[in-house]
Design brief:
Elements: E1 6-7, H1 15-22, E2 28-32, E3 36-40, E4 44-47, E5 54-55, E6 60-68, E7 77-82, E8 93-99, E9 104-110, E10 118-121, E11 123-127, E12 141-143, E13 145-151, E14 164-170, E15 182-183, E16 194-195
Parallel strand pairs: 1-2, 5-12
Antiparallel strand pairs: 2-3, 4-6, 6-9, 7-8, 7-11, 10-12, 13-14, 15-16
Length: about 200
């Protein structure tokens, strides 16, 4: 049933109180006087996933969100925040805002110039009123290049030639760029890849 909390008789808990009791997360069950059991959905902001694409620094990115159990007043600002390349929000970067009292919306954000390449970036949405952050984050996405590879057959002998086909999406490549085909170990790990033809 999840975590239980003993409610005080005659006490009415507001959404802000539920947040203070349990913090961000999924639904919890509450025991009121050991008589009735209630399922309460935590209030907060749910960030939607972004398009599964490779982005470049300076690109626009749309961040959808919905808000549960909260009423906003005039002047509330929703802010889209960007993680670092590993998905950490220890030092988030603001990439777009939307002034709104609605419980759903889309923030038209911009990835900052100078954002380094990485494949673990995420976004979340926070609000100015009450100061509680997202209940979740978006999916991970790429800033930089995405390279899709394929080979013509699945069985090869040591020393045989292998044609590696590739398609690059994302940012434009600079002059003098070199592509290198790398071979994993027998378990598919690229911890110590073997470089091949260029």
């Amino acid at each position: 049933m999840g975590r239980s909390y003993q409610c005080m008789a005659g006490t009415i808990y507001t959404p802000a109180c539920w947040e203070a009791l349990v913090g961000a997360g999924s639904s919890y069950y509450f025991n009121a006087g050991e008589v009735e059991v209630y399922k309460v959905e935590l209030c907060g902001i749910k960030t939607g996933n972004v398009a599964n694409a490779a982005y470049c620094a300076g690109n626009n990115i749309s961040v959808d969100f919905t808000s549960v159990g909260i009423t906003y007043t005039a002047g509330n600002v929703f802010t889209a925040e960007l993680s670092d390349a590993s998905g950490s929000f220890a030092a988030p970067v603001s990439i777009g805002t939307l002034t709104s009292t609605a419980n759903a919306g889309t923030i038209n954000a911009v990835l900052p110039a100078g954002t380094t390449s990485g494949n673990g970036y995420k976004v979340r949405v926070v609000r100015s009123q009450n100061g509680v952050q997202s209940l979740n984050t978006s999916n991970a996405f790429i800033v930089g290049h995405r390279i899709s590879t394929s080979i013509s057959t699945t069985n090869h002998c040591p020393g045989s030639a292998v044609a590696v086909n590739y398609v690059v999406s994302g940012c434009a490549l600079g002059a003098g760029n070199v592509f290198t085909a790398e071979l994993s170990d027998e378990n598919g790990s690229f911890a110590s890849p073997v470089g091949g033809a260029r």
